[in-house]
Design brief:
With 161 residues, the chain is an alpha/beta fold. Helices cover 34% and strands 19% of the residues. The protein contains five helices and five strands. It has helices at residues 26-35, 58-68, 84-90, 103-120, 138-146, and strands at 14-19, 41-47, 75-80, 95-100, 123-128. Strands 3-2-1-4-5 form a five-stranded parallel beta sheet, with helices on both faces. β2, α2 (58-68) and β3 (75-80) form a beta-alpha-beta unit.
């Protein structure tokens, strides 16, 4: 597991942005950019779920996202293999950042946010996807890739998968 350490700066507003990021898309990138308006720092946390079939190895996802944000001091990229709330607490996150593309996403995310708040008190902040990215999901990008389609328009500039 590749996790950072909890911050000692109690005044720093830290957001945890969890996901599988298989792959990390321009929709994710948009959420990070907009999330930096709300947080002093964002920790992009790649969840490792042994039961989930991933297209790209976690090491590659970690490497690609770190390369994308190289030089950006306000962004850290880690992996984790525990409950999201546990890693959030371990890293000193003040809230969880999640994106919403549709009402279907909202229903699912609201349930998880309610459970997280009940268990640990950590809040979730939802950002609505920008309209030009609302149709983009990692699963759709993986399907396009599976059928040999060009996915570069769905990935951040310079990201190589």
């Amino acid at each position: 597991m590749n996790v950072g350490t909890k911050t000692d700066n109690k005044h720093e507003r830290i957001a945890l942005f969890p996901g599988s990021f298989d792959p990390f898309t321009i929709g994710h990138q948009s959420l990070v950019k907009r999330g930096l308006e709300l947080a002093d720092r964002i920790i992009i946390a790649i969840g490792i779920n042994e039961g989930k079939q991933c297209c790209f190895p976690v090491e590659r996802r970690l490497e690609e996202i770190r390369a994308l944000y190289r030089g950006e001091e306000r962004i850290e990229v880690v992996t984790y293999q525990t409950l999201t709330t546990d890693i959030a607490k371990q890293l000193g996150a003040h809230f969880i950042l999640r994106g919403i593309r549709s009402i279907i996403d909202f229903e699912y995310e609201k349930t998880i946010a309610d459970i997280n708040r009940e268990l640990t008190g950590i809040e979730t902040i939802f950002l609505l996807a920008e309209p030009q990215y609302a149709h983009i999901s990692s699963s759709v990008v993986r399907e396009l890739l599976h059928f040999g389609k060009d996915i570069t328009g769905f990935l951040p500039k310079g990201m190589q998968l």
